[in-house]
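Give me the fold.
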Amino acid sequence: MAQFVESPTLISGEPSQPVIREKENLPPKSYADAADHAPDKVNGIENIPPAQFIGKGEVETQRTPPFSQTRHRKSGSLRVNGASKQPKASNLPVEDIQDRDGEQLSTTKLTFTDQPKPQKPQPELVSGRRAGARWERSHIHFAPISIPFQRRLQTLMVLAHTLSIALFLTAFFLLCSIPLFWPLLFPYTIYVLLSPAPHSGELSHRSPLLRSLPIWSLFASYFPARLHRSAPLEPTRKYIFGYHPHGIISHGAFAAFGTEALGFSQLFPGITNTLLTLDTNFRIPFYRDYALAMGLASVSRESCENILSKGGANGEGMGRAITIVVGGARESLDAQPRSLRLVLKRRKGFVKLAIRTGADLVPVLAFGENDLYDQVTSDSHPFVHKMQMLVKKCMGFTIPLFHARGVFNYDVGLMPYRKPLNVVVGRPVKVVQSKRGELVDERYVDEIHGLYVRELERIWEEWRERFEVDGRVELRIVE
């Protein structure tokens, strides 16, 4: 049975502590030197290695002393198992230190680095494409299933309004495919083409009940839209509201002046407002009756003069108003998000109309109208822009190439974005009516036009910060 026999602790005969050596008048010596010059015997005991290995039945064999290393502070030499070994200066870093006596010493630093274990080579593995990766990189974000029911109704109402012309046309042609309805559809088509109701100014088909239905509140809360008033309007006068900008479909104009969803009659009591649209819209079967019931009328000169000259409290248009989207189809091509370009410099026909009828001009600015859709720009697609201008010249309207969100996704479709829409009605510009049959003075037209533009700019500067418009957007009056 093997045993470990501990040797008695050996103490060097010469003290190495600086304090004791100083008392015994010995010169300073380091701990390493004191250990190196230890005597062979101390107090009669032989100075032997600290341990021996004794095995039973075997020759006594001295155990290899453990690895020890010391460093000489002055010389910087390294002792391994009592043997002096000088390190290579080229491989070891050197630093300068001072001892207690202020003597400059140089020593080396030992650094040990762990050798990385050799890794086992991995076999080459070739994989195919991961299923569903393209869907993860897709830019289309689909709407979640758990959406409040009210938001679904809002989307439904905006979708119905956006596709109203297509829905009524589909219903008409569907009935035309059934011969049983031909005796009714033929005289109805003749009536639609010849009826003077869109420009007669009588507003006999207008339905206040239809305009006040709760479904229009759902339509307006989709964005949401709000109507704001800068100053009250006198019900004893007549007015022409100029709506800016046109946008793609002018959703703000319909919500504010085509329905009672935003409370127009509460903000402007005693005033009957009529939103004007293209005369061709009143030649579409079924849609024509729907538009007339909503209080819409033709934007033709005859229609405007009849509305402002007939009816009202005095039978001459007092308390009546019309809303014109002044920029028209040309301005719709400039409807880009984070921009506001108004086609207004040469648009003076509505000013002359105001002077002939004695109606005051009221500027209206819709913050957020241009942010509801994205559109193909004319700079990146000049050929498409030329074709759009050609269609406008030949047919009186144009078709912007636009897109926004969809019914079930947030990136692709013809539904407008859910962006805040704030319609601000400015202060009226007083207009003096010209005498009947007298030519309108062009200088007076320019004066009224300048006042109108300045009031429009005032609305922009005063309310742009409140309605969180991008600070880089600037109002530009073009053409």
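The chain has 16 helices and 22 strands.
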